[in-house]
Amino acid sequence: MPKVDASNALNFLPENWLTGREADLTEAHAMLQEGRGPGSDFLGWVHLPENYDKEEYARIKAAAAKIRSDSQALVVIGIGGSYLGARAVIELLGSPNYNLCKKDGPEIYFVGNGLSTDAMLEVMEQLKGKDWSINVISKSGTTTEPAVAFRIFKAMLEEKYGKEGAKGRIYATTDAHKGALKGLADAEGYEEFVVPDDVGGRYSVLTAVGLLPIAAAGIDIDALMAGAHEAMETLAKPGMDNPAWQYAAARNGLYDGGKKIELLACYEPSFRFFAEWWKQLYGESEGKEGKGIFPASVEFTADLHSMGQYIQEGERHLFETVVRFAECNGQIIIPNDPDNVDGLNFLSGKPLSFVAEKAFQGVVLAHVDGGVPNLSVTVPKRTANAVGQLIYFFEYSCGLSGHLLKVNPFNQPGVEAYKKNMFALLGKPGYEDRKAELEARLNG
Ligand code: PA5
């Protein structure tokens, strides 16, 4: 299980930061476990590592095997919760340079997560001369960015393989009953996977939304799910030694004390998109009703040479949560240089990880001295099992934390507001009144 260490935040927290929240944590925990409270329609993720659809899970594996056998590239179309989880896991367990690394599976390209023409052209260029498939993912089936991207890449695929050939290369992950994508997938006969009704986008990485691209990348989804299952069982036990209780209580205690921004830090470049996933999870779950910790992220040690100045001496509204992987995947020994021109022979024979460990320790002490409390979450190693645990740990902590903050952690009315404005401004039928109102404002 991820281990939470709040010892470097204690000077910034009241003595009863954990015990003083016992009653609220007990209630928040019960709401999650018993399926009640604000947002209770969206608690399918709580028992998902046990209650997932086994028949669909087998189809996910079969589809991934087919993609791996007939495609040199997979285009994954989705945005927000229909995108970040898959990319987070593929990069964390694979590489931030996944497509450049030598591997036996397809290259993975993520599109439909923005509206950049240049980015899309770049992916189109990469697909030239390759066999490829599409996994289009949208719970609502109507989000503009992925819908537009799907129209474009579907046309490309049909041009390459013909309409019939393309059908066998398109995998649609969407709502079980409704939405434009569901209608299209039914009509065209694509293989379909389901985003369960009771699982919101940002909690959906362990459904087909995340699992199909992750499995296509050759990652062991059994181990990922087993890790999540272990975490589900461990975190279901209420009490002060529950790491999710500790993390939720500490961050809320720091927030109450004026620390409004949480910097999620990691020393692994492969963690970058996991941090993006985490930002969506916490930002969408808690940022509402004029409340919520602002989730941000940094990559150490690189960002110590850019954001480090602000963290050390800027406005004191920050705290840090460092995710640490205790063990590396191998070892690099710093060589001896007989001339010692760079003066580094005091490090000769030491592993690079030793330098990283000392950097971590030095950074924590410096930042704490500078007024930035530090929490750490330690995970044994970058394995599929450990990452499954980490995913569930952050999800569960987020549910608890949102309840401590007294918001509904499972809705996202703010995201819907922008989507509606965009539909209106683009002239989508049914949005005529809103279009007129918005255009009057824009035209001053
Ligand atoms: O968490 C959310 O609900 C959002 O970020 C959605 O995942 C995102 O807007 C994409 O929505 P959809 O899957 O309906 O296309």
Question: What's the quick description here?
Answer:
The protein is an alpha/beta fold and about 450 residues long. The protein has helices spanning about 20-35, 50, 55-70, 85-95, 115-125, 145-165, 180-190, 210-215, 220-235, 245-255, 270-285, 310-315, 350-370, 385-405, 415-425, 430-440; strands spanning about 5, 75, 105-110, 130-140, 170-175, 190-195, 260-265, 295-300, 320-325, 375-380.
Percent of residues in helices comes to 40-55%
Largest sheet: 5 strands, mixed
Choose one word for the global shape: globular
Strand proportion, as a percent range, falls in 5-15%
Order of helices and strands: EHHHEHEHEHEHEHHHEHEHEHEHHH
Strand order of the largest sheet: 1-10-9-7-8
Number of helices: 16
Distance from first to last alpha carbon: 55 Å
**Radius of gyration, rounded?**
23 Å
Bound small molecules, by name, code or SMILES, are: 5-phosphoarabinonic acid
Instruction: Please tell me the overall pLDDT.
Output: 96
Low-confidence runs: none
Counting DSSP E segments of at least 2 residues, the number of strands comes to: 10
Q: What class do helices, strands and sheet pairing give?
A: alpha/beta
Organism: Pseudoflavonifractor intestinihominis
Subcellular location: Cytoplasm
EC number: 5.3.1.9
Function: Catalyzes the reversible isomerization of glucose-6-phosphate to fructose-6-phosphate.
Structural features, described:
It is a single chain. This protein has 444 residues and is of the alpha/beta class. The chain is built from 16 helices and ten strands. It has helices at 22-34, 48-51, 54-70, 84-93, 117-127, 144-167, 180-188, 208-216, 221-235, 243-256, 272-286, 308-313, 352-369, 384-404, 413-426, 432-442, and strands at residues 3-5, 73-77, 107-111, 132-138, 170-174, 191-194, 261-266, 294-299, 318-325, 374-379. A five-stranded mixed β-sheet has the order 1-10-9-7-8. The protein has a five-stranded parallel β-sheet with strand order 3-2-4-5-6, with helices on both faces. Helix 4 (84-93) packs parallel to helix 8 (208-216), helix 11 packs parallel to helix 14 and helix 15 packs across helix 16 (432-442). The termini are far apart. The structure holds 5-phosphoarabinonic acid. Residues 79-82, 138-140, 143, 146, 200-202, 284, 412, 415 line the site of 5-phosphoarabinonic acid. This is Glucose-6-phosphate isomerase.
